[in-house]
Specification:
The complex is a heterotrimer of chains A (501), B (316) and C (250). Chain A has helices at 2-22, 29-59, 75-102, 108-128, 132-150, 156-189, 197-202, 209-227, 235-242, 245-272, 278-297, 303-323, 327-358, 369-372, 374-388, 394-408, 412-438, 464-482, 486-497; strands at 64-66, 71-73. With 501 residues, chain A is mainly α. Chain C has one domain (11-219). Classes of the chains: A mainly alpha (501), B mainly alpha (316), C mainly alpha (250).
Chain lengths: 501, 316, 250
């Protein structure tokens, strides 16, 4: 029952918001928007509670099944659900203040909340559904439901970003669809009965290698487009920077990961079958993404794009870690998923706060943010340190664990390259953010209008919910870096076990 | 032996005498589809009759080439008729003289002379049309070559009679992707080579927009009649190659008697009529392409026939 | 008629459908008009349904008939209907579609893709009954790749969307043969998902049209790597910038 409530609540919320959209514009549109925002917060908090409870029990060794096996949750799924629920909640709370401040046209936010809840629903369904083709459907649904969120600003740039996002993601989805259909015939060729993740794993050893390899590559490329692997990443920095900040937190923080989850699900199956070298391809793909993104980070001029490129880098790192063999590497991969989600969503909340303060995304026109809005500045700095991987924050821990696991399994070249990319990204991110936060405004830097940060009169204080989310998120991040609670550690350990046979 | 000679003569006669009718029916149907009445189907015969009774005017700047061209243009389709199945599905005695590539060469010879003849006069439109025809021909050439390659690959031969028998072997071969794509590619080729819409407008009267017609602008009297007649025959010959060699041998005479061969005439006429209907639909629903779009049109034909080739190559 | 004759007839008809399917895929690369693209897509969907019926008859799997019927309802009927509802007629105005590469080059590349598809599927064909080897699998792959290619080169919204749908057609063309026992409910879900996708993309295209005055995606080029981000994202100070009116739209 719990299991069905988790996606059920956002779906209900989405339907209610959608129903609100059907009504023509009324004078009290603003009030109805507040109601929808409140409802979204309540439903996502409930989902978070349910998901935590479920994760707690999964960590203790339970598994959940419903709807005669169509829906089931194991440790890896529970972890992803927990993370989706977490970011869904923080982002919903953040939206309350942020969206109302940014978009004042009455009635527009109804569309936002309808899509928001649908988006959360489709993401939550991905780790729950057991049948790969249905998973594909929900992956496509995440694209469809978030498309209008990306284009929400309705500027030319936002529309372009949304179009690129939709076009490339759906192209990837088409390729992945073929992959999933082939996977089904692979299953049949191996004599398997049920087309589920478990059913696939069950007969993996008997699968014809050619068919399995083809379908895995198709899925890797197809869904990899949506995760943002290089060279199919071109849409990601655009979409993840043009969307409103709470949506960016969702897209960058958790949507990428929940799609990556599907690829991770296939790794043990590919492993079991006689398809040697598949792991090497996976590692190569991951390194390519991490490396390219690290260098692209150096030349960005928009601080939201900065964080978006860092997502590409981290997805690459996770893929490398998952591709490495060994328990330690897989634990580190799962840990990196957790750390990345918590950190990246915080980064975008901080970027949103900075955007509310200075009203520009251009890095070079933001100088001395610390004077203009200490909270935004500190949050941005903390987020940058965390996402770059400074000790003792969680991403440092996970990246360190990945490198150590790689060394232990003798993959020296991989580790060396990965370390290089991480260091480059570290400097790239901090260079930009440091200048934004502490840099002194250049004399005669364009016209005064580009430096609203130095004109205190123009600054409104940040909305309370934003501040609350920033404080809570920062605290969670630091706490996770210092100590990993034992149930969570157990959940990660079990989830890591799902990455291999 | 005598019978085969007679059958051969009958083939030539059919092409010779019925080709103006084909052009007439084509024009008439097109006009009807466009809600007009159109000229009588016998109009081409009247045109030819009229032209044969007119005096010929020759430019004093022109050489023997100009005078020889109409005869070459007129004779080449007749030669081709001897090589291809028009009425019979068994080879007549000249059938092994040349294969489909030979057919292409003989038809190209006529085109070559027409081009030279057009350049030979002082008329500025002639060379323009000639260069355009050459452009179309250059683009069509690779398509022809690939069609022949594919055909020889599928049927193991390029002799028309062997090829046509191959398609009828089984439904699987007849309906295979290779055959379907091959037919589509060749249909596009007929449109290009026969100077039909969308490549060229056979009924156009503006010299600047002409491709094929402008080559014969300078001819008058007998020369013009022969050029015209040659054009009609070329179209019918191409249609016969398409219908009888590439599509099916159905409706052709298999019996070795004169009556059987004569009986094939209505069947072939029916097939030609169906193809004419297809042409009419295409011509009425499409507009003429701009000159530089022709490369795209023939590019499409090329891709189609290469696709035919690869579907055959990779057949398991 | 004996059983084997029926089988071979079905298989030959299926090959015919396969050949035409490949032809429509090429034609979608070659066509220059939005309306033509849509018609070719409809033709392709009809061929997909035809193949589903033929394979259903061959393998006695009634749910392939279901797949065919769902396909017949959703793609040739509902997709154009949704597009008509969400977009203005102006999208189909007879203008030539912008694209990055010219059409002859595109066709040659498309050809290379088709050859590649044949190479790629060679090892997969062991699982396929011999009489169906030539058609569905390689041709579906080729159609998928050509759809992706259309998406990549076209700069006009609706043909790009049709490219996506053509990819889906290609995937299903393989799927109806290789994954023919997939539960019908899933096929239904995929089809309805496709319709939702068309709807949302249609809305997005309408917004772009509203904003830009056309659906030429090629004109959207504000987000270039390395170029400065747009100077000020105006909507953040509260209001939506007045939308650029489209002089042509009525």
């Amino acid at each position: 029952m719990t299991l069905l409530l988790i996606p059920g609540l956002p779906l209900l919320a989405a339907l209610l918001s959608g129903a609100a959209m059907l009504r023509p514009k009324r004078p009290r549109a603003r009030a109805s928007e507040r109601v929808l925002a409140g409802m979204t917060i309540v439903s996502s908090v409930l989902v978070l509670l349910l998901a935590s409870k479920m994760a707690w029990r999964v960590a203790a060794g339970a598994t959940f099944t419903a709807l005669s096996g169509w829906v089931s949750v194991d440790a890896l799924g529970a972890l992803i659900i927990l993370l989706i629920a977490l970011v869904g909640t923080t982002s919903a709370i953040y939206s309350w203040g942020y969206m109302a401040r940014s978009y004042t046209e009455p009635g527009r936010l109804r569309l936002y909340y309808a899509n928001y809840n649908l988006f959360i629903f489709s993401m939550l369904a991905i780790p729950m559904v057991n049948e790969p083709t249905l998973v594909w459907i929900f992956v496509e649904l995440t694209t469809v439901s978030s498309a209008l969120l990306v284009s929400f600003e309705n500027t030319e740039a936002a529309l372009e970003a949304a179009w690129k996002y939709v076009a490339l993601s759906l192209m990837g989805a088409g390729i992945a669809l073929l992959g999933f259909l082939l996977l089904f015939s692979t299953l049949q060729a191996a004599g398997g009965e049920s087309y589920t993740w478990q059913g696939l794993q069950h007969v993996a050893a008997r699968m014809p290698p050619a068919l399995l390899t083809t379908s895995f590559v198709l899925i890797l490329v197809g869904l990899g487009t949506k995760v943002g692997f290089v060279p199919l990443h071109t849409w990601l920095p655009d979409a993840h920077s043009q969307a409103p900040s709470p949506v960016c937190a969702l897209l960058s923080g958790i949507e990428t990961t929940s799609v990556l989850y599907v690829i991770l699900r296939l790794l043990p199956i590919v492993d079991s079958a006689s398809t040697p070298g598949m792991r090497r391809w996976v590692i190569g793909f991951g390194l390519l993404s991490a490396g390219t993104a690290a260098f692209l980070l150096l030349q960005v001029r928009d601080y939201k794009r900065l964080f978006a490129f860092s997502t590409v880098e981290h997805m690459g790192i996770i893929l490398v870690a998952a591709g490495l063999a060994g328990e330690a590497a897989h634990f580190a991969a799962v840990y990196q998923i957790l750390a990345h989600t918590v950190t990246k969503s915080f980064c975008f909340f901080a970027a949103g706060a900075a955007l509310l303060t200075v009203k520009t995304r251009d890095i070079s026109s933001v100088r001395g943010l610390i004077g203009a809005s200490p909270i935004a500045a500190i949050a941005l700095l903390l987020g940058a340190l965390a996402i770059a991987g400074a000790p003792p924050l969680p991403l440092f821990m996970s990246e360190f664990a990945i490198l150590r696991a790689g060394l232990a399994s003798g993959r020296y070249l991989t580790v060396a390259l990965l370390a290089l990319f991480i260091v480059i990204a570290f400097f790239g991110i901090l260079l930009h953010v440091n200048r934004m936060v502490f840099g002194s405004p250049k004399p005669g830097n364009h016209e005064p209008a580009t430096q609203p940060a130095t004109a205190p009169a123009a600054i409104m204080p940040l909305p309370h919910t934003c501040i609350a989310v920033l404080i809570a998120g920062g605290a969670l991040m630091i706490a996770l870096g210092l100590v990993l609670p034992s149930p969570l550690r157990e959940l990660l350990r079990l989830a890591a076990a799902g990455l291999r046979r | 032996m005598l019978l085969r000679i007679l059958a051969n003569a009958l083939q030539v006669l059919v092409v010779l005498l019925l080709s103006p009718l084909v052009a007439g029916v084509l024009d008439r149907l097109k006009e009807i589809i466009q809600s007009k009445r159109g000229p009588s189907v016998l109009q081409p015969y009247r045109d030819l009759w009229k032209l044969f009774h007119k005096d010929e005017v020759l430019s004093d700047r022109s050489s023997w080439l100009f005078r020889a061209t109409p005869y070459v243009v007129f004779v080449t389709p007749i030669f081709v008729t001897l090589l291809i199945p028009v009425l019979t599905n068994y080879p007549l005695f000249l059938a092994f003289m040349a294969d489909m590539v030979g057919v292409g060469f003989v038809l190209a010879l006529g085109g070559f002379f027409a081009t030279l003849g057009a350049v030979d006069t002082g008329n500025p439109y002639g060379p323009m049309g000639a260069s355009r025809t050459r452009m179309v021909a250059f683009l069509a050439e690779p398509v022809f070559v690939i069609v022949f390659f594919t055909v020889s690959f599928v049927a193991g031969s390029t002799i028309p009679y062997i090829v046509q028998a191959h398609w009828a072997l089984s439904a699987a071969i007849f309906l295979s992707p290779t055959h379907v794509l091959l037919m589509a590619a060749f249909f596009l080729l007929i449109l290009a080579e026969g100077g039909r819409i969308p490549v060229d407008s056979p009924t156009g009267h503006v010299e600047l927009a002409m491709i094929d017609e402008s080559k014969s602008l300078e001819y008058s009297g007998t020369g013009a009649a022969l050029m015209k007649w040659g054009g009609y025959m070329k179209l019918l010959v191409l249609m016969c190659v398409f219908l009888n060699v590439l599509v099916t041998p159905w409706g052709l005479a298999s019996g070795q008697t004169l009556s059987a061969v004569a009986l094939a005439i209505p069947f072939v006429a029916l097939k030609v009529l169906i193809l004419i209907l297809a042409l009419v639909v295409v011509e009425s629903s499409l507009a003429k392409l701009r000159l530089f779009r022709i490369s795209e049109f023939l590019g499409a034909a090329f891709v189609t026939c290469v696709a035919a080739m690869i579907t055959q190559l990779f057949k398991v | 008629m004996s059983a084997t004759t029926v089988t071979s007839t079905l298989a030959s008809l299926n090959s015919l459908v396969g050949g035409l399917f490949l032809l429509t895929a090429f034609a979608m690369v070659a066509t220059r008009q939005t309306r033509g693209c849509l018609q070719l897509f409809i033709a392709q969907s009809l061929l997909l349904a035809a193949s589903a019926f033929l394979l259903g008859a061959e393998y006695h799997t009634p749910h392939l008939y279901g797949v065919g019927i769902v396909d017949l309802i959703s793609k040739p009927i509902l997709v154009p209907w949704i597009l008509n509802r969400t977009l203005t007629r102006e999208v189909y105005a007879k203008r030539e579609i912008d694209q990055v590469l010219n059409i002859p080059t595109s066709l040659l590349i498309a050809l290379a893709f088709a050859v590649f598809a044949y190479f790629l599927t060679r090892p997969l064909l062991d699982a396929v009954a011999p009489q169906f080897r030539g058609a569905n699998v390689p041709i579906g792959f080729a159609a998928l790749l050509l759809g992706a290619y259309t998406l990549a080169v076209r700069r006009e919204a609706v043909p790009m969307l049709l490219g996506i749908l053509a990819m889906e057609n290609g995937a299903f063309f393989v799927g109806i043969l290789l994954a023919r026992d997939l539960p019908f409910i899933i096929e239904l879900a995929v089809a309805s998902d496709g319709l939702i996708m068309v709807f949302v993309v249609g809305i997005l295209v309408r917004k772009i049209q509203h904003r830009l005055g056309s659906t030429r995606i090629g004109e959207l080029a504000t987000l270039r790597e390395g170029s400065a981000s747009p100077p000020s994202p105006l909507p953040h100070d509260g209001s939506i910038a007045p939308e650029r009116q489209n002089p042509k739209a009525v």
